[in-house]
Amino acid sequence: MNYLPFILKTIKKAGTLVLKESKTNYKIEEKAKNDLVTNVDKASEALITKEIKRLFPAHAILSEEDNFTNGLPKNIQNAKYIWIIDPIDGTLNFTKDLPFYAISIALFEKSKQSESSNFEYLEGEIIAGAVYIPRLDELFYAGKGKGAYLNGKKIHVSDTKKVEKSVLATGFHLKGALQNIPYFEHIVGKCRAIRRFGASAIDLVYTACGRFDGYWEFNIKAWDIAAGVLIVEEAGGCVTDINGNLLDLFGSQVLVTNGKIHKELSHFMGDV
To answer: Which distant-in-sequence residues (6+ apart) come within 8 Å of 79 by Cβ?
Structure first.
C-alpha cells in the first residue's frame, strides 16, 4: 500500500492548524527544565492521531507527547505498523516566532522486537515519511525505494567531498548538550561552518537537499529523526550512529552526511 498520499494530506492539515494557532494566545508548559510543550503541540498531535486511527485502527502510534517511562505499551509492542510522529519539532522556536520548526510523520514496519539503550528496540524499517516546515511551506517526503522530494521536486544530497569544505549542523538537545560540547569543539575547526537550528527534523531534511553536508546530535529520540532519516537515505545520504555503526533508531545518537564525507567525519568523531 502507498501510504504517502495520506501522510502528505495529514501533515499539511496539521501545518495549517499550527500556523493558525501560532497567531493566537496559546499556552506554554514546561515538561522539564528547558523542555517546552504548548497546547498547539497537543492539538497537532490530536489531529494527526485522529486521522491515523480513522483509517488505520490496527496501527500503533508513537508520539513525542506520549510518556513511555515504563517501556513501550502493549499496543506498540504487538503492532506490525507504527506511526512515529512529532507534532512540532522545535517547539522553542515556535514559541519565539522563529520559522525553524517542523511537523514530522513516519511509518515504521516492524519485523521483530529486542532491546535498545532507549527502550525495547523495534527491528524493521521506515517505509514512508514526511517533514513539513509550515512557516516556510517546505514539504519534504520520501517512500522506501522511491526517492526523496521537496514540494514535488526530487532532491539529492550535496557533492562536497571533504569535511574541510563542508557546512555541518548539530544540536544541543537537553541532556545531550554537555555530551556534545567536546565533539563541537573538535569538529568546528575542521569544517567550513556549523549551524544550529534547534530542530532535528529540519537538520536532517536540509542535509537531504544539500543545504547541509552533514548533521550529528546526541540524546535524540525516534520521533526526532524517523521521517528525516528515510528522506536522507532516499536522497543518497548515509545514516549511522556517531561511530559509523548501524543506526539504532531507538537509541540516542545520529550521524548523517552526504555519504562522501561520512568516513572522514566519523573518524574525527572517534578522536573525541
So the answer is: 58, 59, 60, 110
Q: Give the integer Cα–Cα distance in Å for 56 and 185.
A: 46
Cell of 52: 491515523
Selection from 210, 233, 203, 59 nearest residue 142 by Cα: 233
* Residues near 69 by beta carbon (within 8 Å), at least 6 away in sequence: none
Let me know how many helices (H) and strands (E) the chain has, helices first: 8, 14
- How many angstroms separate the CA atoms of 213 and 201, rounded? 15
Residue with cell 578522536: 271
148-150/153-154 β-pairing: antiparallel
Assigned fold of 163-270: D-Maltodextrin-Binding Protein; domain 2 (3.40.190)
| DSSP class of 246 | P
Q: Which residue has the cell 525495547?
A: 120
Closest CA to 224 of 98, 81, 103: 103
Judge whether 239 and 229 are in contact, CB under 8 Å: yes
Q: What is the pLDDT of residues 220-270, one digit of tens each?
A: 889 999 999 999 999 999 999 999 999 988 888 999 999 999 999 999 999
Residues 6+ apart with CB under 8 A from 245: none
**CA 14, CA 18: separation in Å to the nearest integer?**
6
Closest C-alpha to 227, from 199, 266, 194 = 199
What's the pLDDT tens digit per position in 171-201? Answer: 997 776 788 999 999 999 999 999 999 999 9
Whether 135 and 19 have beta carbons less than 8 Å apart is answered as yes
Which residue in the block uniquely carries the three cell numbers 496501527?
A: 59
Q: What is the identity of the amino acid at 241?
A: D
Domain boundaries, the chain: 4-154, 163-270
Q: Per CATH, the architecture of 4-154 is what?
A: 2-Layer Sandwich (3.30)
